[in-house]
Amino acid sequence: MQQTNLFGEIENGQSISLPDADLRYFSQYYQSDEADQLFEYLKAGTPWRQDSIRIAGIERQQPRLSAWYGDSDAEYTYSGLHLVPLPWSQQLLAIKSALETTCACHFNSVLLNYYRDQQDSMGWHSDDEAELGAMPVIASLTFGADREFALKHKTRKELRYKIRLKHGSLLIMQGTTQAHWLHAIAKEKDAVGPRINLTFRRIFGSRSPAK
Ligand SMILES: O=C(O)CCC(=O)C(=O)O
Ligand SMILES: [Fe+2]
Question: Boundaries of each Fe2OG dioxygenase domain copy (predicted)?
Answer without folding.
Answer: 106-204
